[in-house]
Structures are given as C-alpha cells and as structure tokens.
Amino acid sequence: MPESVGIATGFLIAALHHAGLVALTHTPNPMRFLNGLLGRPESEKPMMILAVGHPAADATVPAAAKLKKPLAEILTVS
C-alpha cells in the first residue's frame, strides 16, 4: 500500500507542477497525531502531509538540489 500512495502522490505532484503550483511532502514520525487533529477514525493511517501553493516571485532552487549524478552512474541497461 505505501507504494501505491507514493506513486499516486508522484502523479499528483506532477499535475500540481503542471498547473503552476509547488508542493512539499512531509512525513513526520509518528503520523497518528493527524487522526485526532482532523477527527479521523483510528482505522485510517495517514501517510504524508502535502503542502501546496504558489511559489514566491523570487523563489529559487537551492544549489544542492541541482547536483545530479551522471546518467551512466545510476542507469544499468541489460
């Protein structure tokens, strides 16, 4: 189930980005505090928090986020 949530979240983030929004995922441990905060039953298990909004006009991407490994270092074709 976590894999399905991760894949669905990836599609949602891509759609949000395409719509001109930005998103930040957060997975605090433990997540159960959300059940009480949002009035949800104990049978539900929160997976992540997704903060979404418009980027600031002067927003920039941190330099560390732009450091990428060469494709040959992370891809194996057999």
Notes on the structure:
- Helix content is 35%, strand content 13%.
- By secondary structure, the protein is α+β, with helices and mostly antiparallel strands.
- The protein has one domain.
- The two termini are 29 Å apart.
- InterPro entries: Nitroreductase-like (IPR000415), Nitroreductase/BluB (IPR050627).
Q: Can you summarize the main beta sheet?
A: 2 strands, antiparallel
Mean pLDDT: 91
The best one-word shape is extended
Total number of helices? 3
Topology:
Blueprint: H1 2-18, E1 22-26, H2 33-38, E2 49-53, H3 71-74
Antiparallel strand pairs: 1-2
Organism: Marinibaculum pumilum
Keywords: Flavoprotein, FMN, Oxidoreductase
Protein name: Nitroreductase family protein
Q: What distinguishing features does this structure have?
A:
alpha+beta, two-stranded antiparallel ribbon, 2 strands, single chain
Quick synopsis:
The protein is of the alpha+beta class and 78 residues long. It has one domain (2-74). Helices cover 35% and strands 13% of the residues.
